[in-house]
Design a protein that fits this description.
The protein is mainly beta. 11% of the residues lie in helices and 35% in strands. Keywords: Covalent protein-DNA linkage, DNA damage, DNA-binding, Hydrolase, Lyase, Plasmid, Protease.
Length: 253
């Protein structure tokens, strides 16, 4: 799974990197070294303009944890942060979004945890690893988004509609596979247009666009156990793990 990641680039940088034509400069998200489920995250997507109908590439803040349109509560999103590549095109919660509502979720890298036996303790310690492209370039994680209408909010209230997202994952390889069996998928720059195009709806063709981040050229290194607590944030979370870390416990989401 992908349960935490790092996203520190500004919306201005993201708009340039992903050739975004529309974003709201008043919508701001702080850089985060500990993005967690239910956080708002930047997403690149394509939607028709309400006035002209022309499809625009947009940068939007979405809530991480997809809520299907038929869900009774937004709370279900906390359990739907990842969609498996093997079944995403057929699962009821994801198949419509996979056909029509795909997005890119920019990231510097992601975290995974490895169980480390501790002498004298019955439970192993969970050591976090930061996994990122070797060349330092941003990842465009493959995502889906969905709209959910809150039935308890009035129609004229902007809060009536939620836009949520999920990350598509697959079996991990290379550096990521040595830490955890699953990892996020990514979209290569040459395939951004095809992935984001809402008129491109052939499931098998779309699945061929899903690739390993950085073509598998990933670096994985043990980092501070402080990342285990979602309340911690800042660049210090990417510091190399101490030789004999005293922290214990896994990701607290």
């Amino acid at each position: 799974m992908c349960g935490r990641y790092v996203a520190t680039r500004s919306p201005q940088d993201l708009a340039g990197l992903f050739h975004v034509s529309r974003w709201n400069p008043e919508q701001l998200l702080a850089p985060s070294w500990n993005v967690a489920p239910t956080d708002d995250v930047w997403a690149v997507l394509e939607r028709p303009d309400h006035g002209t109908g022309e499809v625009e590439r947009q940068l939007r803040a979405l809530r991480w944890g997809l809520v299907p349109s038929w869900a009774k509560s937004v709370d279900v999103g906390a359990k739907m942060i990842n969609a498996r590549m093997e079944t995403v095109h057929e699962k009821p919660a994801y198949r419509r979004a996979f056909a029509k509502r795909r997005c890119l979720l920019p990231a510097d890298g992601f975290y995974e945890w490895q169980a480390v036996p501790m002498e004298g303790r019955s439970k192993p310690r969970k050591q976090p690893y930061f996994i990122s492209p070797e060349d330092g370039q941003p990842m465009a994680m493959a995502g889906l988004y969905e709209f959910w209408r809150d039935p308890d909010v009035a129609d004229d209230d902007p809060a009536a509609w939620w836009t949520t997202c999920t990350i598509i994952t697959t079996d991990a390889t290379d550096a990521a596979g040595r830490v955890h069996p699953r990892m996020p998928l990514a979209i290569a720059p040459a395939h951004y247009d095809a992935w984001l195009d809402p008129t491109h709806q052939d499931p098998e063709e779309l699945r061929t666009l899903l690739t390993t981040p950085a073509d598998g050229h990933l670096n994985a290194r043990a980092v501070s156990p402080a990342v285990n607590d979602v309340r911690n944030n800042g660049p210090h979370l990417l510091e190399d793990a101490p030789a004999d870390p005293s922290g214990s416990g896994g990701p607290d989401t």
